[in-house]
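Re: export button greyed out
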Amino acid sequence: MGTSGRRTVRDLRRGNQAMLLRALYFGGPASRNELSAETGLSAATVSTMTGDLLADDVIVEAGQVDSDGGRPRVLLKVNPAYGYAVGVDVGETQVKVELFDLEMNVRARAHYAVRSAKHDPELVARHILAGVDAVIAEGEVPAGRVLGVGVGVPGIVEPGADALVRAKTFGWEAVPLGALLRAGTPLPLHVDNGAKTMGQAELWFGSGRGTSEAIIMLVGSGVGGTVVTGGSIYRGAGKAAGEVGHLKIVAGGRACRCGARGCLEAYLGAEAILDRAGVVADSADEEAALARLLEEGSPVIGESVELLGVGLSSLVHLFNPERIVIGGWAGLMLGGRLLDDIRAATAANTQAQPFDPETVVLGRLGPDAVALGAATLVIEPLFGGTVSPESVPTIA
Amino acid sequence: MGTSGRRTVRDLRRGNQAMLLRALYFGGPASRNELSAETGLSAATVSTMTGDLLADDVIVEAGQVDSDGGRPRVLLKVNPAYGYAVGVDVGETQVKVELFDLEMNVRARAHYAVRSAKHDPELVARHILAGVDAVIAEGEVPAGRVLGVGVGVPGIVEPGADALVRAKTFGWEAVPLGALLRAGTPLPLHVDNGAKTMGQAELWFGSGRGTSEAIIMLVGSGVGGTVVTGGSIYRGAGKAAGEVGHLKIVAGGRACRCGARGCLEAYLGAEAILDRAGVVADSADEEAALARLLEEGSPVIGESVELLGVGLSSLVHLFNPERIVIGGWAGLMLGGRLLDDIRAATAANTQAQPFDPETVVLGRLGPDAVALGAATLVIEPLFGGTVSPESVPTIA
DNA sequence: GACCATAATCTAAGCTTCGAACAAAGTCAG
DNA sequence: CTGACTTTGTTCGAAGCTTAGATTATGGTC
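Workaround output, generated via the alternate export path:
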């Protein structure tokens, strides 16, 4: 029983303001009148509130629209230059750092190659810090306008100020990435799993847009995912929820790199699919190799679709989502050709409840969305968050 | 992006009052001072608020406690006689109706035998309505003090005023139980899956108490369950979430009665376990037969434990709960002897994240808790709900 | 230019919570 | 038995918030 809920009358104001800002951010430019209808607040409140926000430069006017024979509506929108967010994608082969404005336009980029299979935590941290400085300089952003840094990493991120990261693929056991970065920058930090940051990108700007209960699968070399409940990412008690890659689909089945058996990831990432097909390919060739398999019509592909359907069926029964998004480069490759098969396989395994296959859709954002999603973690607090504040992994 | 959040200053009051009431209900008798500390509200607010609640008979004084050399604390508690709730358990062999006061003491009971394998919806509805009248009369409850009727049924309950029920075991395709009952009583109705009502009972009064993220497994003849997120039951987009019985554990495995293959329920309810062991038993003998199997040390039992561990591992990875409760008569029978084995099996399949086996515990409430849990649905609105109001399946 | 329609702002009223002063109800030392 | 002390609970004024309704702003139409 979480002791949540607004307490004082100023919390009320904050909450309503966040709601209004959210409506404006996701509902495009809108007039005060429309905002009033959208948020349920009275016109008077919207007026005073927008007045404050305009004075604070959080929002700006955005033209006018004729109104059927009356005073024209003044459109308002979020001021893209009010603040900037840095998004970082810590990947297998590179550290990618991008600077976004509030409208999520990229203002500057920096890349740092990382030699595969050798991910020294301190080196990664140095790359990130260097990248942050570089993009802020290149983007010519006024000091104090950078709202924070979001970092998407592989593996599981423990809650707490140290942001301990466990990533088997990197050989990271309990790397205090948060602490390492904290030593090098005063900016607010948000560290989270890369599949989750990408899921949030897809939720905000991609195929998940507008949904409140959704599953976003990220099928790349491995399998990750994001569970969305109540319009925001579900993180569970220890921020380790949503690990769809380790959903079991075959009791006692193939060994997974996590050490257990029968995980979805033991069958379904590009790595596992190629392994099952007996194809040897290092990570650089995976994409071409998988494409060839698909071209050849390998039976392993059909099996993979069936197994994905089994996994999705479990998710449908557990979460009853309104949408399932399949993303990640391998997921998009498979889904691009075989979406109907995936839908059919899911439906065939979902007999106990009504299920609409149309709810399974492809992602709209490419694999580059990890950094974008990481940046959204930075600006999410502006909108108050639909969930309790402590569930946002901030390190302030 | 749900447009949630308090709007006006009176909503604020309602929310704070609900929070206070919740603290009082679950925190036992408490003084105004303790409530102030518990809720974070100022002493002044607590004072005026408790004044109102006392005047409305929602709460009552409950004795005094000496305070270390000062004015004694006056204890307050929820008034058990403020309101009453009817809980209904629609089971395989009987319809059970119970009247509870606010402290969940049983004030009256009524039972109606139902011939197995012949569950006429209208007959069930008549039994329920008769039972409601009977227990209200027997309990001698003042008119207008009955807050509503909660009904726990098998299968999946669709949202909406009709409360369409789909229950394969009853042969119910789309029974509008809500509409049938609505025609016979003016009381507020709440219809939900029996596994969910029992889960809520276990969450409020049993082994799930105090947790905010939990899984409650109900292993009886079949397998059901409840997923708790943010302190309340997670229902998903169409109120069909949490169907752990149809989590897949063996792709292409045994046929489940739902029509799909490899569901947990195809391996794990008493029915499935006995079937796998080659034992023929009708539902009345299941309990004895399962006990015999356990006594004999049948290898099927060991397999079942292993498979349960696989299923629980999936749930841990997806939900990262702080507690997993195993309930239901078969679950308690297995867990009573083999809890350590279940824990070990779960841990063995959960390699990718830190997992404490101690979080798996046995339920504390018997199988009779379905009606109790159904009654909690009635009084839950008093506490404002941690979630948005529309997610509570009320038919008003 | 008078009149109408729509948008945005201003004003007064009604709630709410809070801090601080104040009242209540005990204990304890002498 | 009295007075000091401690702790609990209440009252009151202050500050903030949202709202309904009145008012002002800004355009078109006849």
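The CA atoms of residues 213 and 322 of chain B lie 6 Å apart. The button fix ships in the next patch.
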